Amino acid sequence: MKPAIIDIKGIGPAAAETLAEYGINSVDALAEASIETIVAIRGFSETRAAMVIAEAAELRSASEITQIAEDSDKPHGKQDIKKDKKKDKKKKGKGKGKGKKGKGKKDKGKNKGKGKQKGKK
């Protein structure tokens, strides 16, 4: 989620509203603004303008790094999804039990020798 302009240190609701009146309504817009542009807005000295622009740039940078980290945790494309599915299948096969063999009841001698015999009737 992108940060809001009021997340910037030194920008409260009133300052955010004033900036929005001048078309600056996002962290990106403030980070890219010049000091001269911000100083022209009432309530912003040169010092405050420089500070909020720097804070906006820092917040934007931190937000981009967080987004990159979150994106790297997600699978990228069909190849990765297929690999993940194969890994899941391999994991499912491991564990207790014998797999396909031994799923039926054990023959305890009841039917020994009574199977079909070839050639004999």
Q: What does the model show?
A:
The protein is an all-alpha fold. The chain has a domain at 12-70: Orthogonal Bundle (DNA polymerase, domain 1). It contains five helices and no strands. The chain has helices spanning 13-21, 27-32, 35-39, 46-72, 77-93. It is elongated.
Nutshell version of this structure?
By secondary structure, the chain is mainly alpha-helical. It has a domain at 12-70: Orthogonal Bundle (DNA polymerase, domain 1).
Q: What distinguishing features does this structure have?
A:
121 residues; mainly alpha; DNA polymerase, domain 1; 5 helices
What is the helix/strand order?
Answer: HHHHH
Can you give the helix content as a percent range? 40-55%
CATH architecture of the domain at 12-70: Orthogonal Bundle
CATH class term of the domain at 12-70: Mainly Alpha
**Rg to the nearest angstrom?**
34 Å
SS summary, helix count: 5
Shape: elongated
Secondary-structure-derived class: mainly alpha
Return the average pLDDT rounded to an integer.
Answer: 77
User: How many strands in all?
Assistant: 0
Uncertain runs: none
Main sheet specs: none
